[in-house]
Amino acid sequence: MPRLAHDIRYAVRTLGKAPLFTTVAIVSLGLALALNTSMFALADAVQHPPNPYPDAARIIIPWFRGGDPRHPVPNDTRVRVLREGVHSADAIATYTRIAAFVETSTTADDMEPVAVSPEFFRVLGVRPLAGRTIGSADAGASATQSAVISYRLWNRFFNGRPLRDTLTLDVARVRYTVVGVMPRGVHYPIDTDIWLPLSAMPTDASLRRYGPAAILHLRPGVPFATAGAEIDLVAKNLTAEYSPKAPLSVWIWPIGGREGPRLGYFSGFVFSTLMMVLIIACANLATMLVARGLARRRETAIRVALGASRSDVVRSVLVECGLITAGGLALGTLLTFWALYVLPHLTIPWVQRLGDLQPVPSWRVFAFAFGASALTVIVAGSVPALRAAAVDPSEPMKEGAGTTTGRLRDRYNPLIMVEVGLSTTLLMCSALFVLVAVRLAIFEFGYAAKRLVVAELSVAPRQLPSGSSIPRFYYDVAERAGRLHGAEGAATFRWQLSANGLVLAEEGKTGTTWMNVTGYNVVSPDFLRTVGISMIRGRDFVAGDATGASPVAIVDEDAAKRLWPDMPDPVGRMMKLGGPRSSAPWIRVVGMAAAIEYQPRTDPDLPPEPMIYVVMPNDSMTARQLVVRGDGGGARGRAALALALKRDLRNALPSATAIPVHPWLDAYEHRRALEEFLASLFGAFAGFGLALCAVGLYGVLAYTVSRRLREFAVRIALGARRRDVARLVLHDAAVTALAGVGVGAFFALWITRAIADTIPLSYATVVALVAAEAVLFAVATVASLGPVRRAAKADPVEILRAI
Q1: Going by DSSP bridges, is the β-strand pair 612-615/519-523 parallel, antiparallel, or unpaired?
Q2: CA-based nearest residue to 99, from 660, 662, 661, 655
Q3: What is the tens place of the pLDDT at every residue in 476-501?
Q4: Are 460 and 622 contacting, i.e. CB atoms less than 8 angstroms apart?
Q5: Could you give the CA distance from residue 739 to residue 247 in angstroms, rounded to a whole number?
Q6: CB 3.0 to 4.6 Å from 402: which of 190, 319, 398, 707, for a disulfide?
């Protein structure tokens, strides 16, 4: 212990004498640890979400299964028998799930609120973040329409406005006042966002989805097995009464007994990238310690000559590395706490639960941080410690101000090669994502894609108004939607698979031709005008086509070239949506439309899909999509149009449980946002790794120049020009970077193959690799400017006088 205390004091003194080295080492290592630890804490919060129920071990959920399906046990009876037979519970609450259309003045959506008994929140043991919960005051005939909402819905519908502003929402056309907001993560049962009083539940029986169901809170000191035995006895009694030949059993589990979603392949890839950053940081620290140790070789040789053992030298180097790692760990911990506060506010749309989570540094996070720190000490401290232990006391005394030996060893420093190689990989990953993000950002739609809103409709004959038919209903819906405020037109369409995956064309000069297609669009007459697709030849669809005797079609330019390659005008030609032997009717082509791409192709090297539009007279298919074109009000105009359309469709189909309405480019915008996020994320990783690589390269070059100052002085004294000396140092820097890139390119190509498989750009990998190498060489050049300047300014008189 005294020796360790002496080594710590000695390390503190030596680090204090080199403040720049100490600061750079601690900051770079602390940033790397913070980056890894904060991302690990976020993933840990998704994988093991904090349990918002403080007494979760005593809250149990009984779930009945089995029994006779012809004579099921009524849910009300199950709840009643549980109340009578389970004496180990001090409170039993019930809930009923309903499906309803929920709307505010600015938002509307199909949701599943839950009607709960007054004991519900007392059983869960949660207190509201704001306001109050549902209690006995909300029960009985005098109950008011009050509602409790989740933290997530509070931000989504009301932007976190205070409850004193009288927040209201309509559930199944009944107005409720928000009286409370639950804390983050409270969504029981399943994924609930709205809780209503059981006595104020909408009276429409068709809205009920499930329930009533029970949730129990055990008395203090009652073991889980005792409650399980009582609930099993309840199941046996129900079996004897309702289904003696089909036993009724029950599952029981605590409310906090389930984990979050498993991490996928992408998460593993992100963590692999983070580990690369940490390895670069370790290699950078090891490089700096090696360069510092080589600069102190004379001091180490004197210590050995004065009687210090090799173990003392190794221990002092490891203690010095440990102090730097401890400083980096402290800095990384502070930055991690800050990052965990900021991350939930940077919610991204494809991680829906991120905004509802509050990542906290759990024991797993601290274990990861300490494990990474221990790995840093082992990896970064072993190389300089072994080098220091191998010092021969006589050699440093003979070297004087430096020699020309070791130049090749400094060029091909394995630690620098590791840093450059991993930086190449990170830069290549970043470049791949940037290429895809740029391709999506510059994609131009050949139609009014950014002004369209689409609704997914599926109606049954029993849902139609009296005396209406499927074709007439969809015609009325489209006509009414086209007159909404902010709308310029509306139409319906559906995707129909082609028989045998073929389209047959006749009347060509070369005879019958055919082409492979996935399917075609069955549209209403106003579809092309609504979507904004221009006509090139022939005519557009007219209203009479929907009531005519036979179907008519419009093909785009690509389909026309493939079906009638020797004819410039396909108007008037006949086609069959199927193979030669199919029973599909022959359809006359009345026009040719412009070829467009509805979405950016996954593989741009493949030819675009030919499009065929068909109007079927008296089309009776029940599932269609309704597309409405806005007047160009931007994102806000689209959102207002979607809200108006959703309300209009709810009036037209009051019995429908859910009608999805979303912007036409919803999937494209989510994909673009994801690619931009990945580009920025991996760009940050690559930038940080590149900065560490530049620091390591600078340290090695600076040390190399300091060892070769005598050589440079001799060269200048013998007539060499200073620019020749500068060129020599630049050459060594380029060789060092080239060696790292050459080794790292193979690893980069291998590890980025998984990304390239999801990014089918024929040029992407080559462009990404070239870009990564160009950036690395540029950074190597910048990092070498300081040592180059020092070498070029070497004064032969001063240096040779110091020998």
Answers
A1: parallel
A2: 655
A3: 999 999 999 889 999 999 998 877 67
A4: yes
A5: 73
A6: 707
Ranges of the chain whose pLDDT falls below 70: 1, 46-49, 137-144, 205-206, 256-271, 290-308, 310, 343-360, 379-381, 383-413, 500, 507-512, 602-605, 657, 703, 707, 748, 751-765, 794, 796-803
Cis before 212 (ω within 30): yes
The token duo for 567 is 């004819």
Q: Structure pTM?
A: 0.72
- Strands of 43-165 (E only): list them: 59-66, 89-98, 100-103, 108-111, 114-116, 130-131, 146-149
> What are the structure tokens assigned to 408, written together?
């090749």
Q: Following CA atoms 587, 592, 596, 602 in sequence, which dihedral angle do they give, to the nearest 10 degrees?
A: 40
Beta strands 114-116; 89-98: pairing state: antiparallel
Query: Dihedral of CA 619/625/626/627: which sign?
Result: negative
Can you say whether the dihedral through the CA atoms of 400, 401, 407, 409 is positive or negative? positive
d(C-alpha 231, C-alpha 305), whole Å: 80
State the number of CA atoms in the 13 A half-sphere of 318 facing the CB: 16
CA–CA separation, 574 vs 582, rounded Å?
15
- Rounded to whole angstroms, the Cα distance separating 130 from 134 reads 13
d(CA 34, CA 40): 10
